[in-house]
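### Sample
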Amino acid sequence: MLEMRPDCERCGTDLPADAGGAFICSFECTFCATCAEEMDDRCPNCGGELLDRPTRRGKALVDHPAATQRRFRA
């Protein structure tokens, strides 16, 4: 199950689990659309392809809440 990280690792933008606009690699490194585009859809951590992260809504989000630990480091 995806961790659904709450923020962009590069700029700190909030990325709610129930909204689009998040991009992840196979290791779940998470970035906003702007940062993903600026990085040519390549993860700076592993070099993997960044793809749209699916959303999680309704009962699925209630039963399996998103992570709360933020990954952005200023």
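Residues 40 and 61 are 30 Å apart (CA to CA). This sample (DUF1272 domain-containing protein) is used throughout the tutorial notebook.
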